[in-house]
Amino acid sequence: MTSTPPAPRLRATTRPLEHAPDLISLADPNAPMIWSRGDRGCVGVGEVLRLSFSGPHRFTDAAAAWRRIAETAIVDDSVRMPGSGLIALGTFAFADASSAESVLIVPRLLVARHRGQAWITEIAAVDADPAPLAVPDAPASRAWEGVRFRDRALATGGDSVASYLAGVREAGARIERGEFEKIVIARQLEGALPGASDLRVPLTRLAEHYLDCWTFAVDGLIGASPETLIRSTSGAVSARVLAGTRGRHSEDAARDARARDELLTSAKEQHEHAFAVQSVVTALSPHVRDLRTSEEPFPLQLPNVWHLATDLGAALGEQSSSIELVGALHPTAAVAGTPTATAVAAIAELEPFDRGRYSGAVGWIDADGDGEWVIALRCAQLGAPDAQTGARAVVASAGGGIVAGSDPDHELGETVSKFRPITEAFAR
């Protein structure tokens, strides 16, 4: 379902820049729009158009709405790089019944870079007066007091950690009864962000510490995801699947190496990873040709955890937009379980909260339907500012895959490791 009025006809003008500016510094401190990884990414300034979607058809509705907008748009793009021309940034909710909006946002101004190349794009309604193509001044710095997270209070009362452990035990019992083979159970932390806080602070920390992740900020969803759901550019499609985790021990090299080796040799983790890879292969196969995967899972080293990872590559087999590919893939076994429909239904019973956009999708799409989307992991959602104080609620989520033999206390420890990127980024 869409609640968006008819969209105006848009004009996008892209021109090269001589120098690549620091993208995060240009972001709105209160409402940043960022997509960044190393020497690639973009920052959006202002908002020309917002499209909102919900329900089970949110991906197909969004793909159709964006196609209509792109078909009527006038695009003047002398750069012709991934991320130039007409662009929307978006984020999609995990569950069909979620109260969280799924959105596509077209920024008024986009400044982007790709390795040594940089450019600027101005987007406006066709009948609007064109604005000068100039990089805006970076907004002045604001205060940063940080956020102190705590276990999120349950609407039903009770202890949230105890509730999580009970959910994991119940999931294990259902696996033993043969109801499903794997399910992902998550839990949440909450905190309050003081008014007038500069959100470029946590974004900078995430970008500097999680170099192998996409750092993002779209409509109050802020994080650094290691898992590429789909990248589609010029007919080439790629994805990265992560499932199976061990906490890092960076203070002890020998212990850290043992954790990596345990992950690589664990039958439980390899089993979980195989579920996740197969779910992506099955979902992508109708849309691509020449699908290939890395021969064996490899250990992906992040500052907080080791992950088992598999890369996939393919050629686009039909004229599907990146959002349609996201819709075909979501939800993967890595964030839901196997069989997927059964696991999703059980998640609604075993998790005492709406995941919102956590474990949904976040990324961007261009006028050709190309784009790049990650699973919304290692992230937090900010609420609307309080009318009097300006303070904002912050909710972070993390979870892990439960399979036969999963230990609830170990799974709880895994969520602690997965919360670290957000709790450290938002710290004082």
TrEMBL record:
Its EC number is 5.4.4.2. It catalyses: chorismate = isochorismate. Keywords: Isomerase. InterPro entries: ADC_synthase, Anth_synth_I-like, Chorismate_C, IsoChor_synthase. It is an enzyme of class 5 (isomerase). It holds the Pfam family Chorismate_bind. Residues 162-418 form the Chorismate-utilising enzyme C-terminal domain. Belongs to the isochorismate synthase family. NCBIfam families: isochor_syn. This is isochorismate synthase. It comes from Leucobacter alluvii.
